[in-house]
Amino acid sequence: MIAALSLHEATVRRGEVEVLSCASFQVLPGEVVGVVGPNGAGKTTLLRAALGLARLSSGRAELAGRDISSLDEAGRAALVGYLPQERRVGWSLPAWRIASLGAASKPPTLARAAALRALERVGLSNLAERGVLDLSGGERARVLLARLLVTAAPLLVADEPAAGLDPDAQLLALELFREEAARGAAVVLTLHDLGLAARTCDRLVVVGSGRIVADGAPADALTPPVLRQVFGLEGALEATSAGLTLAARRARP
Amino acid sequence: MSSLRLNLLLVLILFGLVALGLLLGETPLSAAQYAQAFADPASAPGEILWTIRAPRAVAAAVVGGALGLAGAVMQGLLRNPLADPGVLGVSAGAGLGAALAIALGLAATPGGTEVAALMAALATGLMLTALAARFREPETLILFGVALSAFAGALTALIFNLSPSPVTTAEILSWLMGSVANRGWNDIAREILPMAAGAGLCVYAARGLVMLTLGEETAALSGLPMGRLRAAAVAGAALLTGAAVAMAGIIGFVGLAAPHLVRAGAGADPGRTLTPSALAGAGLLVAADVAARMIPTDQELKLGVVTALFGAPLFALIAWRAARSWRA
Asked: Are the beta carbons of B327 and A90 separated by less than 8 Å?
């Protein structure tokens, strides 16, 4: 099976500082991969490097087995949909119009229909005509999630899709990503809630100080030493009736 | 309101205002004289109508349309409701070109000042297009624009400073204040090509503007050729602004206010504000020019003065009413 996304020994520099060092990972179709790590560890840089949005000083990034620099705009858009962490929207377009931008290449009527379906999936059918800047932050985040779903791309990359959502909407968002993986999409998410990440994702990539520290099934990736070294937490993932949960407290220096 | 109905309404208003521009003037004409003007364009009333009033009204419409369109493109590109055609320094660049031409005595050559203004605007536009390709964040572009604008302004001030004759200074100042008085068909013909090219580039860029509402990174992965669309938007707005300044001097507020004026009817989609904003800009400037002619003052008011005088309060009113829809 060809990986939907693969990064080979990628290094990204900002000035003199190496913000991503020799990072390699792959995501296969049908797989949900969580990227976790503390603030400033390099999660967003890892995603941006994989999508060709950050310039690599060495290494390479591939989408569906093709070097990302060899793809034109349309080719790249056909292979990946991206939801950045930044949720600023410039103008108060109706929610359905924002969602329909996920299908820029489709005829307007088809794009609108796809947008309305996606808004229904994120539970915002009743707000389809509302201007996005008149929505709450969480509602706006769901409209942007709907835009990502409208792309129906074989690879979906979402940077902190759960941030700012209420608990129910967080679970709904992650359920939707699981549904997308079930239709064969490869999904990459950055998440801060380690318990939620461990329960939702097939695999976790742990990033600390610009390096990939661990990559594997949640229980193999988030081991007590990794929790201590990367997150400064004393504890472990525990299997409960609700799935994996994190029992941890701050490590004392 | 559908965009077709809005545009039709704006076209009707524009025609009404242009008709008003043809009817009103220093020399009142009787109905019989209008009939004569239509029957015989070479007659005295014909001269007044076709070589004084008509080119003046058309020049105001064309300049206003160019500024309205450029303003809408700039607001969309920079995702900023405060952006106007001058925000990136093209107006100041064109003004510098004109000032330099006047100071060097090129104004005596017909069209000399105008050509110099357009050339300076094109040079500024080229610089901006290159900068826009390298720096994608709107904030960065705005900062470069502010720097360019300030530098061109400083050089213009330097020309004032070094100018040996107060006559030159007065001439530059008068030109910079903006006017379409005494504009002839040849002045319009000179700028219409760069304006048409600019408008074409802006129309091409329209589909990229709506995508930019989601930010640079989403747009970069949207499948649209954003690099080309962004360059087209910057170059198009620069051509329109440069040609408008070359034809009429620096005229503020029209490019800033026109997009806001139509947004209530056209919706927030920046691509859809382009045509109505151009039409509204044309209407606004024709109206301002009629006002400039009709307000009884010893010396005719300059168009740039009128647009600023009326435009600033109007803009404050629009801002008051629109404040809700632009909070980020």
From this structure: no
* Interface contact A92-B326, CB threshold 8 A: yes
Please state, in angstroms and rounded to a whole number, the distance separating the CA atoms of residues B100 and B89. 16
Report DSSP letters for A77-95, one per residue: HHH-EEE-S----SS--BH
In a domain, B108, yes or no: yes
Question: Nearest-CA residue of chain B relative to A105?
Answer: B223
Residue B309 has pLDDT above 90, yes or no: no
Looking at every residue in chain B, the average pLDDT score rounds to: 89
Nearest-Cα distance to chain A for B123, in Å, is 29
pLDDT in tens, A172-200: 999 999 999 999 999 999 999 999 999 99
What's the CATH number where B94 sits?
1.10.3470.10
Nearest to A77 among B79, B222, B328 (CB): B222
Per-residue model confidence as pLDDT tens digits over B187-198: 899 999 999 999
Could you tell me the two tokens for A48? 């941006």
Least confident of A189-193, A201-205, B302-306: B302-306
Could you list the residue range(s) of the whole structural domain that residue B38 is in? 3-323
Give the number of domains in chain B: 1
Percentage of chain B surpassing pLDDT 70?
98
Q: Which helix (H) or strand (E) holds A248?
A: strand A243-250
For tokens 């020399």, what's the residue? Answer: B27
- Min Cα separation A148/chain B (Å): 10
Helices (H), chain A: 43-50, 73-79, 95-100, 108-121, 137-151, 167-182, 194-200, 218-221, 224-226
B90, B125 in Cβ contact below 8 A? Answer: yes
Closest Cβ–Cβ partner in A77, A93, A133 for B327: A133
The residue-averaged pLDDT of A73-92 equals 92
Mutation to test the A interface, candidates B134, B216, B222, B226, most A Cβ within 10 Å:
B222
pLDDT in tens, B58-100: 999 999 999 999 999 999 999 988 888 888 899 999 999 999 9
Q: What b/e string do you get for B39-73 counting C-beta neighbours within 10 Å, with b at 16 or more?
A: eeeeeebbebbbebbbbbbbbbbbbbbbbbbbbbb
* Contact check, Cβ <8 Å, A104/B326: no
CATH homologous superfamily of A1-80+153-168+175-215 equals P-loop containing nucleotide triphosphate hydrolases (3.40.50.300)
Task: Note whether B163 and B99 are within 8 A (CB).
Answer: no
Is B49 a member of any domain?
yes
Work out the minimum CA distance from B227 to partner chain A, whole angstroms.
10
Nearest by CB to residue A91, choosing from B222, B223, B270, is B270
- According to DSSP, the β-strands at A211-216 and A186-190 are unpaired
Question: What phi, psi does A213 have (nearest 5°)?
Answer: -90, -35
Query: According to the per-residue pLDDT averaged within each range, which of A224-228, B41-45, B181-185, B312-316 is highest?
Result: A224-228
Which one of A73, A98, A136, A156 would you mutate to disrupt binding with B, by most B Cβ within 10 Å of its Cβ?
Answer: A73
pLDDT band at B322 (very low <50, low <70, confident <90, very high): low
Query: Are B328 and A73 inside 8 Å of each other by CB?
Result: no
